[in-house]
Amino acid sequence: MAVDEAQWLPEPLELAAREIARCFENHGVQYALIGGVATGIRSQIRATEDLDFIVAIPQVVLPRILDDLAATGVQIDQSEVIRRWNTEHVAVLTCHGVRVDWLKPVIPLYQHVIDHARLESGDLGSIRVASAEGLILTKLIAWRTQDQADIERLLAANRGQLDLDFIHHEYSTVGEADDPRMKRLADMVTEFYRI
Asked: Which of 41, 57, 74, 102 is most buried, by the most CB atoms less than 10 A from its CB?
């Protein structure tokens, strides 16, 4: 891990991350922590108030996972979570007062982010965190201003260690060769990675 989570994560985020990851592990669910917390682990810290996961939950297991989380105090509207999971491929929960977003891996790229995640141990407990490459891919897809700043942080913090070919190959499955995002990524690589 790039940083010590205890120095920057508020306790509710730590507790929520441990609770959710423990549930996923208990049920053998494939997942990867993504978003701001994962970016802080793989690069430099930044303020964030929620947790984001890509989660491959088999439909038959989803009700049991929701029951287990509800039993630990996680606030869940089960029928709404199941409806949104099936129709929108997302779920929103509240754990220890923290918003927790789940994203279903509906495209192969997202499953590959899960596949390349690494188990990390620290104040979050044992949790699977997306690789820096996986985080860059998710942020290329989202492409908000914060995502672009996070890509720069990830490039700078992981200089000389990133598999840029993997990023290009995976993104080519969802974007065109002349995609402006790839042009901007190439500029970022020149600025933050190869210096």
From this structure: 41
